[in-house]
Amino acid sequence: MTAPVALLSIGTADAPHDMPQTQVAAVARQLFQDRFPQFARMAKVFDTAGIHHRQSVMPIDWYVTPRTWPERTEAYLAGAVDLFARAAESALANAGLTGPQVDIIVTVSSTGIATPSLEARAMARLGFRPDAARIPLFGLGCAGGATGLAIAGRMARASPGAVVLLVAVEVCTLSFRMEELTKADIVATALFGDGAAACVLRCGEGGFAHIEAAAEHTWPDTLDIMGWRVEPDGLGVIFARAIPPFAREHLRPAMDSMLAANGDRVETIDRFICHPGGMKVIDAMEAALSMDQGALDHERTVLADHGNMSAPTVLHVLDRARHAGLPRRSVVTALGPGFTASTVTLSRAA
User: Fold this and answer.
1) First-to-last C-alpha distance (Å) of the chain
2) Out of 142, 199, 203, 274, which one is annotated catalytic?
3) Is 71 exposed, middle or buried (0-12, 13-18, 19+ CB in 10 A)?
4) Spacing of C-alpha 138 from chain mean position
């Protein structure tokens, strides 16, 4: 019988600068109300987003000055490497392991460009061995936490005994720009924060949960829903279609199909652990998956405390669910560019 893929630990890291939502809203109003005619009508998103605080790699004054792509890249590299290292150190310590014991490193990040990639830049600090396998993943966006967990699980299953470290790092705030404003930019300014999360996996017994299955569903003709647009001063966010109504209408059939491949149904899952893309997305996921309103409580708490950090966010939710006590069976799920739904089915370890 094949040994299960065990989730041994989770670790998280917050960016160093706290940004209260009221402060961000005030700065945004000062900067945008005279330059963006629709700002007054859209400003309510800062109040309805369900966010109290967010964290960023740079102080809020840094974002007020126009920045070039090289400046944004410099901030990304410094902030993301530090977040990577602190999240990895936390996860490894929680598993009773150290950097030299890591065999495979899966890195998820889509908010900046790093070549060499983040795990290479953090090797000396964490003491990774020269022969450790490196797997950097780009372009997964908000689905990256769930998809990265699935890929890390597959790597662990394919290499029995190997220690696999997954690290998801995003520095979303660097997409904030004053030079060219769209409705999507205003929404992003109200939602996005920076952060990281890491998991340690190994094929074998132990840990707090086992990976049973993983699946993805990419809807046709949906490339325009979410992504980046590349412009001279950096990466600008794309929200070309409203995500909450799309999720409300289309998530359930896709989830039914993904779960059926493992002999499951929505009704057989005790808890969905979801990426909280925003309050309206949380409400839409509860409706689509036939949950009571308010059931996604950890999701709302993570959103309130950190905002939408993209890929790491769902792993922050998983960490809270773990501390609260995982039910017998749960599904980690996130939506991201593609447009794609990603799922990982977990069973609580004995």
Assistant:
1) 17
2) 142
3) middle
4) 12
In this predicted structure, what is the pLDDT of residue 29? 85
The 3-state secondary structure of 23-40, one letter per residue: HHHHHHHHHHCCCCCCHH
- Taking the C-alpha atoms of residue 147 and residue 314, their distance in angstroms, rounded to an integer, is 11
The tokens for 334 are 């996130």
What single-letter amino acid sits at 58? M
Q: How far is the C-alpha of 114 from the C-alpha of 31, rounded, in Å? A: 30
Q: What are phi and psi of 196, to 5 degrees?
A: -150, 160
What would the two tokens of residue 208 be? 């707090």
At residue 7, what are phi and psi to the nearest 5 degrees?
Answer: -85, 110
**pLDDT for the residue numbered 230:** 83
State whether residue 108 is helix, strand or coil: strand
pTM passes above 0.85 = yes
For residues 57 and 62, give the distance between their C-alpha atoms in angstroms, rounded to a whole number.
10
User: Block means of pLDDT (10 residues each) for the chain, length 350 residues?
Assistant: 88 96 87 78 85 95 88 96 98 98 98 96 97 97 97 96 97 81 80 96 93 96 88 78 89 96 92 95 94 94 96 98 96 95 94
Cβ distance 97 to 106 under 8 Å? no
Contact between 167 and 107 under an 8 Å Cβ cutoff? The reply is yes
Instruction: Check the CA dihedral 23-79-95-317 and report its sign.
Output: positive
Beta strand 104-108 with 164-171 is parallel
142 catalytically annotated: yes
- pLDDT value at position 1? 54
> What pLDDT is recorded for position 180?
64
